[in-house]
Amino acid sequence: MNGVLSEIDLLGLLDSAKMRPTRQRKALAEILFKAGHRHVTAEELHREACSGGIRMALATVYNTLHLFTRAGLLREVTVDSGQRYFDTNVSHHHHILNEQTGQLSDIGEEELLISGLPEASEGMEISCVDVVVRVRLADKEKL
Amino acid sequence: MNGVLSEIDLLGLLDSAKMRPTRQRKALAEILFKAGHRHVTAEELHREACSGGIRMALATVYNTLHLFTRAGLLREVTVDSGQRYFDTNVSHHHHILNEQTGQLSDIGEEELLISGLPEASEGMEISCVDVVVRVRLADKEKL
DNA sequence: GTCATTGCAAATACTTTGCAAATCA
DNA sequence: TGATTTGCAAAGTATTTGCAATGAC
């Protein structure tokens, strides 16, 4: 299930980002971009790589995530003051966060309409508008 | 400028939160609640306290911020994966973040209208919807 | 062979915990 | 005085940096 084509895709991806195709980068790119869109923390990604038998320092995962982000292959999502999340969906969109599990999912930008946004003040511009919908298990026992 | 009344206010505030009025707490409460609404990080608050001549460990600032938050006197705002911000405005509202300076300001909840929010999935409920408008200095040199 | 680039140990930044000391009834 | 609570040193997480080793050309 990872034939020649996928290998080429990954190489193309790294090449387009002007990054040398090291063993570690190929492994991380494969985990990140092989399936559909994903949201990961460095820790999760590192664990997955290790499970897959790829030995790598956690710092390398961080460095690679930042490089991918700078290259436009990932986008950082701010939903938690304790941990950085990276999203393989780099188009602008919003998020739903499960407060209990930390699980993130996407809301397409076009689904939400936000009106009443203030003008950016003199000399400033809006760089983006992020919406986070926090959800949790409903109180079962509501009388 | 900090007469008897303000002292009483602070004591009342701490008392209503069921917290003993220690020297450190009074000092922090004074910094936080004396003027209008504020957004602070633990680090900033600690620096201010020190400047004001109140010696205190940074950990005490964190503990106090959490106690105030649990008591409903503060609200935590998530806009940065690296640092926790606390807001003395505890009503529900949104934020503008200056990406360059880290400065936060408020947008009243009633100013924004958000339509198209998804239903919470089965058994889940929406706990809150947070909007962050990120702004930065406009590119001067746009041709 | 050269030299930009990588990968990771060590350092840093931020936050929380555990417990001795202080405080109140 | 004894139970409770406090304040902070030390520990714990999350992330970044600096540089020896590597690998592309």
Folded structure, characterized:
2 copies of one chain form a homodimer. By secondary structure, chain A is of the alpha+beta class. Chain A is built from 4 helices and 7 strands; from the N terminus they run ααβααββββββ. Helix content of chain A is 33%, strand content 26%. In chain A, a hairpin with a 5-residue loop joins strand 4 and strand 5 (104-108). The N and C termini of chain A lie far apart (53 Å). Mean pLDDT of chain A is 86; it is low at 1-5. Chains A and B meet through strand 6 and strand 7 of A and strand 6 and strand 7 of B. Strand 6 (113-115) of chain A pairs antiparallel with strand 6 of chain B. The structure holds a DNA duplex (25 and 25 nucleotides).
- The total count of helices of chain A amounts to 4
Strand count of chain A: 7
Distance between the termini of chain A: 53 Å
Instruction: Specify the biggest β-sheet of chain A.
Output: 3 strands, antiparallel
Overall pLDDT metric of chain A: 86
Quickly give the structural class of chain A: alpha+beta
Biggest β-sheet: strands ordered side by side in the sheet of chain A: 1-3-2
Question: How big is the Rg of chain A?
Answer: 18 Å
- Assembly state (oligomeric): homodimer
Question: How large a portion of the residues of chain A is in β-strands, by DSSP E?
Answer: 25-35%
Please estimate the helix content of chain A. Answer: 25-40%
Largest interface: A-B, 40 and 40 residues
Shape of chain A: globular
Order of helices and strands of chain A: HHEHHEEEEEE
Any low-confidence stretches of chain A, pLDDT <50, length ≥5?
1-5
